[in-house]
Amino acid sequence: MTETSEQDERRRRRAAWRASDRKLWQSPAEHRIGERLTALAADAGRVYDLDEPIDSYGNGVVEALEARTAALLGFPAAAFFPTGTMAQQVALRCWAGRTGNNTVALHPMAHPEVHERGAFGVLSGLRTVHPVREPRLPTADEVRDFDEPFGALMVELPLREPGFLLPSWSELVAVVEAARERDAVVHFDGARLWECAPHFGRPLAEIASLADSVYVSFYKSLGAMSGAALVGPTELIAEARAWRHRYGGQLFQQYPAALSALLGLQRELPRLPSYVSHAKTVAEALTDAFRKRGVPWFRIVPEVPHTHQFHVWLPYQADELEEAAAAQAEQTGVTLFRAWWAAEGSPPGISVTELTVTAPGLEWTADDVRSAAREFLSRLS
Known about the structure:
Number of domains: 2
Largest sheet: 7 strands, mixed
Distance between the termini: 21 Å
């Protein structure tokens, strides 16, 4: 397939998703510029006084967002960043200067190792090591007994690549304590921390308090246009602001992103527990549909979702699954699945997709899910 035909196919799929009457979630790719601007203009006055002066290099509405985020996570200070990649670069660089050790222990499937082109080492002089290689978070013993010293332990909550996985609360506490025994600081990659509270059964501030610093995203769970925050001790955040400037992250005006983030905190954050709960219903209904249709092999990972996102594995080629999903959306107005891919290291002929449940998905009953799954499977050879 040529690059042009691939682009055409992506446009076709996005158009089908956008036109669907029923879907489990709304992809950012489905939005139009005018729609986002109109919605932001209509709703922003609910979270901030629009007669206030426009922000300039991080004051005004950006400061309001920082204060709100710090309060929610129980830290004294927060700094807004244009991207999570930059926020975590800065956080770990600052901690390396304080600990005197530039080695960061993290999972080999964590975001910086998979999606950031080696930025830790190339830009920040950080070295990474891996206490565990299995598709799960490390145990306390693996952290405690790791054979190399490290200055910081970075824990991604949830660990996205293997299926948005979370440890139990006691396991997480033990891992943090093991790092402390080694005189290491703990940093949470909390891009999706917002939806972890139901799994742990604890408020966000209590979860975040286990770490020395936390990064959160505003668009991955909350639907903002962009942006991230780093929360931590006042002195660390002050230094982080200096490095943010050096890295080119002190933007002149950021009010669209900041306002959309405040809206996400007001609107989406309270809804996340319902999304997490309903994801369990969706996963159970899919399992039932696959079994009754006699699918020779499949996996829901985790079997009971830890957040409102999880993985579905099926024994078909990715292009066949994507075509079936696109055709279902076009012909029935129902979008169940979207992009599929062959996971690295998996046997040939097995593909995986990420499934997300947000507000549109709450309208689906278990019978709706089973019906859509049966219709989807009927399109596969």
